[in-house]
């Protein structure tokens, strides 16, 4: 029995290390492609590529934050878009009061999102399974309807920003190229932070809780503090995505925090591969590119997207990330 356990543990650790290495290489490849994209716009003269790529990275940031709790903590939140909305409205509300600096707006957004996550997470984590899903949905919808009621900020019609945020008093983000690389830098930073957290003792406990919460309690770890910490960190990162989204489109709407948007973030994580960190980035890219492509054929593009998602779930375990890993594994063995 002891020798069996001794043999299994190193094998499992080795598998985790290989998985982390593969995810790291995949993320590095994606970041390199993204960093080189502006060269493509210079060659083709199509600025729309830069706009779509920036949007992909913003939603990749939000999906990455969700993967922290969904892929590694097995917490299915249907209210995660609320944190994106908090970040967006932090920009709008501060802008209305004359505070236009991106760093200040980001700090306020992260602080408010962390507080909201701490309070709602502490309550939500008292439940499990479908009850957790429903209570996160309820908190998200409460915030959604609160923003609709704020007529000073456009209510249901949303709020148009007069300009993008400034950086140290300079309107640097008005340049789409600067905006692009700012979003890329934040995405890379969030990925490295998430990777460091998951590789740490904290991440090992979180993964252990996902696999078997009862066993983790039996060896002396209480899952709730770890899950709550992950929930707060995920909400804070999602708020940064909201800050960047508001600046890219120069518009803020309660729709950013609707349950449908939360559902889309879950789809991005599942599509790319849960519990991989690199997967949500690929999932966000696949989601938005498919949306752009399918919507050019019909206004009922979601039907076609649903069929594609169904095929991915049925025939590609681990989503797009799992498919790439199998292809790389096949090429390696070949």
Automatic annotation (TrEMBL):
Keyword Disulfide bond in record: no
Membrane topology: Multi-pass membrane protein
Stretches that traverse the bilayer: 20-41, 47-66, 78-97, 103-123, 130-153, 178-198, 228-246, 266-290, 302-324
Keyword Transmembrane carried by entry: yes
Top-rank lineage group of the source organism: Bacteria
Record's keyword terms, sorted: Cell membrane, Membrane, Transmembrane, Transmembrane helix
Subcellular location: Cell membrane
PANTHER family: ABC TRANSPORTER ATP-BINDING PROTEIN, HIGH-AFFINITY BRANCHED-CHAIN AMINO ACID TRANSPORT SYSTEM PERMEASE
The name this protein goes by in its record: Branched-chain amino acid transport system permease protein
Organism of origin: Pseudochelatococcus lubricantis
